[in-house]
Amino acid sequence: MVTRNNDPCPRMKSLPPEALEQVASYFQALSEPTRLRILNFLRDGERSAGELATLCGYTGANISRHMAMLTAHGLVAREARGTSVYFRIADQSVYDLCDLVCGNIARQFERVATERAAFVRSATQGPTAKAAARRKPRAGKPSAA
Fold first, then answer.
1. How far is CA 100 from CA 31, 104, 115, in A?
2. CB 58 within 8 A of CB 34
């Protein structure tokens, strides 16, 4: 997202250190793979804590700890119903942020794969590879060793 003056994040420039600490804390809430998995499970709609524990393969206590952090940062909303607790996404913009980051990582992987493919091509087609191919003995003829 680029603004008119080509500054991708004009708001961040004017934030005081205390606000930057909150921003860092928000990103810290997203820095744990289990919490990202939970957010992915919640894309399909609300889920109970028990469902999330089963889906993630963790104990209820472990999921509860992760959900407390996501709730504290306003990413998910919590609702108690009888003996169960249900969670849903409270801030849909978190998916825009995650999709932006995932797209960036995908582009990095594609660039690295392209560079590796070029390296492999040059290694198998370059002068060293051609010289090695000339030195290989032909089938049925003994090598001059």
1. 15, 6, 23
2. yes
Q: Which range has the top average pLDDT, 15-19, 21-25, 53-57?
A: 53-57
- Contact at 8 Å (CB) between 70 and 39? yes
What is the token pair recorded at 118?
């070029």
Q: What is the pLDDT of residue 129?
A: 55
Confirm whether pTM is higher than 0.85. Answer: no
Q: State how far the Cα of 54 lies from the Cα of 75, in Å rounded to an integer.
A: 21
Q: In the chain, what are the domains?
A: 15-93 (1.10.10.10)
Q: Which of 145, 122, 120, 125 is nearest to 135 (CA)?
A: 145
